[in-house]
Amino acid sequence: DDKRASFGITSPSGGTVDPETCTKKDICLLMRQLDMDFYERAREGLLTESDYASPPTYSWHAADNCNSLSRGYKETTVTDSAKCLRMAKRKGAKGELEVVSDEALPSGCVISVNRATGRTAAYMNDIESSATAGSSYRGKNRIPTRIMQLCVMDRSLSESGAAYYSPYKLKPSMEGREGHSTACSFGMMAALSRVSKTGSPCAKILTYTTDTRFHSAEHALQMAEAMEARGPQFEAMAAKIRAYVDRVRAKFVLLDTIANEWCPGVWTAAKASDGATCDVPRVMAWTEDNKGDLFAIAKQLGQEDVLASGLTENEDSNEGRTDSYDKPLKYALNDASCEAFEDETLAARLEGAPPTPPDFFEHAFMLQD
Question: Directed axis angle between helix 263-272 and helix 24-44, to 10°?
Answer without folding.
Answer: 90
